[in-house]
Amino acid sequence: MSIAREQEQSAAQIIRKRRSALIVKSGYVSLLLRVAFIVIIGWVLLTKVFIFTQVRGNEMFPALKDGDLVIGYRLQREYQKNDTVIYQADGEQKAGRLFGRETDVIMLDDSGTLLVNGTAQAGEILYPTYAKEGIAYPYTVPTDSVFILNDYRTEGKDSRDYGAIPRKDVKGKIITIIRRRGL
Questions:
Q1: What is the pLDDT of residues 42-62, one digit of tens each?
Q2: For 85-113, what is each residue's pLDDT tens digit?
Q3: Nearest to 104 by CA among 89, 90, 88, 121
Q4: Starting at the edge strand that comes first in sequence, how are the strands of the sheet with 92-100 ordered?
Q5: What's the farthest any 2 CA atoms get from each other in the chain?
Q6: Strand partners, 69
Q7: What is the pTM of this model?
Q8: CA atoms within 13 A on the CB side of 4
């Protein structure tokens, strides 16, 4: 009877060890699945929903300064006038302020006044807006395009140089600015 009892205890120990190993294994599998899920959600958010970039240059001064980190929302499809956006032009990622949408008429005169559909646009911009070579004014923004200007109008390139920017090249609307202070 003692041999049977020893065999029973030995079998119980083997079963406990196997059950314990199975629980540990299932815990690791569960942890790996959770980590993979978090990584996939993070990847989707950071590449498909939001855009993180750093501002280069002072083209958008004073709204955006050189080195500022900005977060943009990629899923925005309807942009309003004065929205600050991230766009692709001349192989570079840039930030600018949207002033004209499709079919809007842009007019720049010699006094530095910007007119959109006959209405003067000033806002908080301190710098005059002068026309540059290459675009004849009045300029009608083509279909599926936007007209983007820098805030620091005498610095850098914008739609006065490139012409209207295709909507597919607008990467997102800036929703947050993180000032870089000594990073």
A1: 999 999 999 999 999 889 988
A2: 999 998 999 999 999 999 999 998 888 88
A3: 121
A4: 50-54, 69-73, 170-178, 84-89, 92-100, 145-149, 165-166
A5: 111
A6: 54, 178
A7: 0.81
A8: 1
